[in-house]
Write a structure and sequence with these properties.
heterodimer, A: mainly alpha, B: alpha/beta, six-stranded antiparallel sheet, 10 helices, 20% helix
């Protein structure tokens, strides 16, 4: 029969192993999808498109993959924690990171093209890339200068 | 190949190109000018394809001992004009007279009034867009009309008519003939539509002048000298060390490489390499109530002068404000996620002038003498006292903007300006070059660019760099005609 010390050690090793396993299998895709769904729960989202967006976002490496994998590893606990955190630097950083992800999603979707209609299904178009010739001058909020009138 | 020239210019960015432009206007048809550029001609198509402005990695240019403090440079034909954001504000008159007016820092050896007409010329060449009113005296209007304000800018202008202005910028507000109109892509460091002025799209033609020989991928190692005369430069090209001689040598790289090349050449001075500085940037994100943002027509849609000139400069740094008009790309930029409130947010950068510190330096790397090294130990107390005023300044802005809360206040990593390190002044004991950017000891050596700045201004440095290059070239030929 294992001693108490051996028992605690084996539990500890198990937890470490579980965390390492979670980290090794996490891709970040689920975390991105969860964040978009949580923040935009008032919109009807084309879920398949959200998954495609998540894959594309991770490919771009705009947000450190290690950060997204950590969020994914925390899984459902993350959503609980991030929803309850209201103040402090960690809360602000999480909030900011989530806003960046959601911003990229909204800009990559047809949401603003459709006049920000909250009743319409939001579809992912393609990853928002201002260097792309089609996208370069397609910023949804910019009002062009009317140079003919000076 | 004859390696003797009338002039050798090192660098093809603003300082070198504006000098060359004016030099060619004055010089005889028989003049011969050699221009040496370290990088390649990475043209716009290459830049867009590779999503970068230079084929040389910044890590291969210099050692940054504090990488958390960025000093942005882009090596190649056109230099930093390829990666700049296109802010084209003049300095304010008080920036030139900090000591006389406010008892801090030092005065510049040149005054605003002396540069005013040169500023105007630079604005014409760059086709600058700017306001119809102005916080500083001007003798001519901007060549291009102003951009469109965002809604927060419009509110700020209404509340502070003498404190808020359309930005002066080379992000074109109308077609210029060589550039399209800025569409506010928010990616100005590599403008996808080539709407901002660069040397490549605005001044490349001067390098086609038959009097000019442009050598790319020529890395200048030293300024050669004979007694108290600069006799030429040595440079490495295709793995071979070569040299060229000239009657006139012009260093026009930047505030990292100008002092580095001088130090390597043994042309030393107690001030050389000291005082590396730029503005202190503080980025403030404000959540607004009921006001939509990001709807101006260019990436930075307004400039605030409320906290710039004034008696406060005796105690703390002056501040220039800029409104960021893009919800992406920039580190702290993002949309809000609450329903209907996606753009109810203002990003405002507060840029404070800095008083150069002697312990912020450029020197020769001890481990690799072929590289300069930067050391940055912080901003001046004067600039930091300015930053302490940010909450009070936000309170003032709230007279115009319905501010719900402050989302964040962060010190930025860089303003992408590099200044100081070979400063101008009237006294050779405490300055490297004179008011015409001529080296105090080697009188046929000019050291151009923002390395000559004795103090920072909150304003963007580029039009001043360019104006000083025209001013220096004019002086050179005025002196020659006097001597003739």
């Amino acid at each position: 029969m294992p001693s108490r010390r051996q028992f605690i050690a084996s539990i500890g090793a198990g937890v470490v192993g579980l965390v390492a396993w979670r980290y090794s299998v996490s891709t970040g895709e689920d975390a991105v999808v969860a964040i978009v769904r949580k923040r935009l729960d008032y919109l009807k989202l084309d879920l398949e498109g959200v998954h495609t967006f998540a894959k594309d976002l991770i490919k771009q490496q705009i947000i450190a993959p290690s950060k997204i994998r950590l969020i994914d590893m925390a899984g459902p606990i993350y959503t609980q924690i991030s929803s309850r955190l209201k103040h402090g630097d960690l809360a602000k950083e999480l909030n900011h990171g989530e806003e960046r992800i959601v911003s990229m999603y909204l800009l990559s979707s047809d949401f603003f093209q459709n006049g920000a209609d909250q009743n319409k299904l939001v579809r992912y178009v393609d990853f928002y890339d201002p260097f792309n010739n089609i996208r370069a001058c397609n910023t949804p909020f910019v009002r062009p200068v009317n140079y003919s009138k000076g | 190949m004859i390696n003797n020239y009338d002039a050798i210019i090192v660098g093809t960015s603003f300082a070198g190109s504006f000098f060359l432009k004016r030099y060619l206007q004055h010089a005889p048809k028989t003049a011969r000018v050699l221009v040496l550029e370290r990088g390649k001609h990475d043209n716009k198509a290459w830049q867009l394809e590779n999503r970068r402005t230079s084929s040389i990695d910044i890590e291969d240019l210099y050692v940054n001992n504090q990488p958390e403090k960025e000093w942005l440079v882009s090596a190649g034909f056109g230099g930093n004009s390829n990666c700049w954001w296109g802010g084209a504000t003049r300095m304010m008159p008080g920036d030139f007279e900090l000591q006389t007016r406010y008892g801090v820092g030092v005065d510049w050896p040149v005054k605003y009034d002396e540069l005013e007409s040169y500023y105007g010329e630079v604005e014409e060449i760059m086709a600058v867009s700017g306001p119809t009113d102005s916080p500083m005296p001007r003798s001519r209007p901007f060549p291009l009309p102003p951009h469109r304000f965002s809604d927060p800018d419009a509110l700020l202008k209404k509340a502070f008519p003498d404190g808020w202005y359309h930005g002066a910028t080379v992000r074109a507000s109308a077609p210029t003939g060589t550039r399209g109109v800025c569409c506010g892509s928010g990616m100005c460091e590599l403008c996808p539509t080539d709407a901002k002025f660069t040397i490549q799209n605005g001044l490349a033609y001067i390098y086609d002048d038959p009097r000019v020989t442009l050598l790319l991928q020529a890395e200048v190692e030293e300024v050669m000298k004979k007694g108290d005369i600069a006799s030429g430069v040595s440079y490495v090209r295709n793995g071979k060390t070569e040299s060229a001689t000239a009657d006139l040598v012009i260093l026009a790289t930047n505030a990292i490489f100008n002092p580095y090349i001088l130090l390597r050449s043994g042309i030393t001075h107690d001030r050389l390499g000291k005082g590396l500085h730029e503005q202190l940037p503080v980025d403030v994100c404000l959540n607004l109530k009921g006001v939509k943002s990001y709807n101006g027509s260019t990436s930075i849609s307004g400039n605030g002068y409320l906290f710039y000139e004034g008696e406060h400069r005796r105690d703390y740094a002056a501040c220039l404000l800029e409104t960021w008009n893009s919800p992406f790309n920039y580190r702290r930029a993002a949309l809000r996620t609450e329903p209907g409130r996606w753009t109810e947010r203002a990003y405002i950068r507060f840029m404070f002038d800095d008083l150069p510190r002697d312990d912020n330096t450029v020197s020769i790397s001890t481990t690799n003498p072929k590289m300069p090294v930067t050391n940055f130990h912080g901003y001046s107390d004067y600039a930091m006292r300015g930053m302490d005023q940010v909450p009070a300044m936000v309170e003032t802005l709230s007279e115009a903007l319905p501010i719900e809360d402050i989302e964040s206040i962060k010190i930025g990593r860089t303003t992408a300006h590099i200044q100081g390190t070979a400063v101008m002044g009237d006294d050779p004991s405490n300055s490297v070059v004179d008011r015409y950017l001529v080296h105090h000891e080697l009188r046929n050596l000019l050291v151009l660019g923002a390395s000559a700045y004795p103090t920072a201004s909150p304003a963007y440095p580029t039009v001043t760099i360019s104006a000083l290059s025209l001013w220096a070239a004019d002086h050179l030929f005025a002196k020659e005609s006097k001597n003739a």
